[in-house]
Amino acid sequence: MKLKEECAVFGCQGADDAAGIAYLGLYALQHRGQESSGIVTSDGSRVYEHRDLGLVSKVYDRETLDRLRGRMCIGHNRYSTTGLTSTANIQPMLVDCKIGKIAVAHNGNLVNAVDLRRAMELDGSIFRSTTDSEVLLHLIARSRAGTLEEMIMEALSKARGAFSLVFLTKDRVIAARDPHGFRPLCLGRLGEAHVVASESCAFDIIGATYQREVAPGELCVLGEGGPRYLRWSEPAAKQNRCIFEFIYFSRPDSRVFGENVDKVRRKLGRRLAVESAVDADIVIAVPDSSNTIALGYAEESKLPFELGLIRNHYVGRTFIQPRQAMRDWDVRIKFNPVRGVLKGKRVVVVDDSIVRGSTMRKLVSIIRQGGAAEIHLRIGSPPITHSCFYGIDTPTRGELIASSHSVEAIREYLGVESLHYLSTEGLLSCVEEPDNYCVACFTGAYPVDPSDGTNKTVFESRTGCGDGFENE
Ligand code: SF4
C-alpha cells in the first residue's frame, strides 16, 4: 500500500472551450485523485457545473463538455483527505452568497477546520458537505471586506495548514497558496489565456507554457484586465514544500517547486545506491512509481536495470474478490513477476516507500516465487514514522510499520536478505533548497501544529453524516 494521492486543481481564464481545456488538464492530473472529478465554468454572466464520482474518462462526455460554456473555469480531481467519498463532497464546491456565485477547488488540508466549523455552526451556519474546503467558502461569505479579493484574503488569513486553491466567480479565476507552500501550484500561458495547475504536466497536454510557481502567500487574480498578483500573507520564514511530491506523488514529467521531478527522482536513486551498495546482478523497480528511482540506482551502481515486475494497468480501485482466490491475490492482480528475468538472480528491488509493510511482504513473496535467489530491498525515502496532516492520506501512526519496528525487524518481517532506506540527509541533498521542505512524516517535526488531530472522517464521526461510500 502506498500513501494515497491527494488532489489535483486546474484553472483556465481567457480561452475558447475552457471546459475542454480543463478536461485535458484533469486527464493529465488523474494520478493525483481518482475518486471524483468536477468542472465549473463561467461565460461572464452564468455559471455552469458538472461533477461526478469516478475517473475523468467516465465523468465527462462530449455533451457534458458542450454544456459547460464560457472562457473561464476551474476543475478538480479528488482523493478524499477530509470527508468520505460522497457526492456532496465532490469539488469544485459551488455556493451562492452576497457576492454571487463562487466556486473553490482545493488541494491540501486545513488543520484548524474543525475549530473554524464548530465556531461557525454555533453561530448558525449550515454546512452541506463534510470537507474542510467548504469552511473556506463560509469564511469568504461572512467577510465584511470591501472587494472579492479582500474577502478571500481575510478568509485565508484565518486558515491554517496546507492549501493550494483555485476560485471561480462569474468574471475571474483566482489562484492562492498557503504561506508554507506545502502543495505545488503553477502558472502557465496558452496564447492569450492563463492557466493554473497542480503540476506542469497539465500544461504539456494542452500546449501551454510553464511560467512560474504561484508563490507561497500569493493571490493571482486572472480576469479581463490582465493578471494581477497580490500578496495576502508574507511567505513563512522557512517554506515547507512536501518532499513526497518528488518521492512519489508528482509525475516524473512534471516541474514542481521549480524543479524537474524526473531529475530529482533519479538523484534519489543515485544517492540510495551510494548509501546502500550491495553485490547483486540486476536492479528492478516496483512499477510505475519507482521506475525513475530504480533507474538512478542502476546508473550509479552500474548494474543492469531490468523489468522484473509487470504491472496490470487496468486494475480499478475496487475489484471483486474471487471465491477461490489464491494467496496474495490482491497484489498478484496488480503485479506479475517476469521469471525469465528473475530466475537465479540476486535482485535489488527499488520502491519509493513502505507504509504498513503488508503489501511489500506479499510482493517479496511473489518475487521470490518468480525465482529470485536473493532480494535486496532499497527504499527511496526514510522510514515513515508519522502521519501527514497536510493533505496526504496516511494511516494512523500506529499502523505505520516504521513507527514501532526497527529496520532490522522490518527486514525480518518482509523476508528479504537486506533492507535499506534512504537517509533524511540523503533525501534532502537531492533538492536545490533543502531547508525549504517538510519532512515531518519521517521526523515528527510538524511545521504547523496539527493539534486538531484532523483525520479525514472527522466531520462524519462528529455528525454521523456521509452517504456511505467508504474508501478501501
Ligand atoms: Fe509531505 Fe510528509 Fe510533510 Fe505530509 S508530512 S506534507 S507527506 S513531507
Structure description:
- The chain is an alpha+beta fold and 472 residues long.
- It folds into two domains: 232 residues, Glutamine Phosphoribosylpyrophosphate, subunit 1, domain 1; 189 residues, Rossmann fold (3-Layer(aba) Sandwich), CATH 3.40.50.2020.
- Helix content is 29%, strand content 25%.
- It has 18 helices and 23 strands.
- The strands form six sheets. A seven-stranded antiparallel β-sheet has the order 3-2-4-1-10-9-11. A six-stranded antiparallel β-sheet has the order 5-6-7-8-12-13, with helices on one face.
- A hairpin with a 2-residue loop joins β9 and β10.
- α5 crosses α6 and α9 crosses α10.
- The longest helix has 15 residues.
- The protein is globular and about 70 Å long.
- The C terminus is likely disordered.
- The site of iron/sulfur cluster (SF4) has 11 residues, from α17.
